[in-house]
Amino acid sequence: MSAPLVVNTRDGVCWTRRTVTRGGVALYAPESVQTCPNFVMATLAELAEHGIAGSADVLPVPVGTATLVPESPARTMLDHAREALNARMAKDDLRLVLENVITHAIALKDRVTELEVAAVEGRAALAALCHDLDDPGSMALGALYLLQQATPGTPMEPGETVPKVYRASHESIVMGLYTTAAAAREHCEADMRRDLPSVSLDWIEDEDEEDGVAELVAAIGEEERSTGFVVTALEVASKYDEEADE
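^ that's the sequence the OP posted. Answer follows.
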């Protein structure tokens, strides 16, 4: 099929075929432009990207003044109506999606607020329970620590302390870290009884010191001797303190 002599694009420009390349590709220039270099002319495929409203195999008369009438005015109006409808539907769909996103975001925000309130209330209740018990257990203390991390801006409740871990060590060699002092002491006593299973053991704490150190001693005769086992309470930091190492 040969290339038409005249092509009308949807933007209202009338293009006329000026020449054909050696490869058989027709080149077009606007009808109002009398002289146009080949390298700036458009191919039929490029005109199709702008939308072709009609074409003809005869030149308009007179040249330079007339424009090609589309294939069918009724069909052109229908195409414009269809394009307008599609554009309106696209806008409505986009508006609906945006409204759904906003609604979902508001629901998520409300849910986050509910969870924050529940976390604060649960933290307060668990802190009071841990305060009342001599040994609340590692699971309760671990849960309290997680709640404290989830509610960083919440003031400390009465009886609530900064989370701690307890380091069991022997002669400066770290044996393990525990969430309760009882677990750390049990580790030290078990290691001590491997060598002396029947020895009487006791823990000595200096209440005047703030380092939270408890030392395991063994009763040998009427004398208590140090075993080298120590349990040290360490506070767990929730953020880096640059001055803490100085």
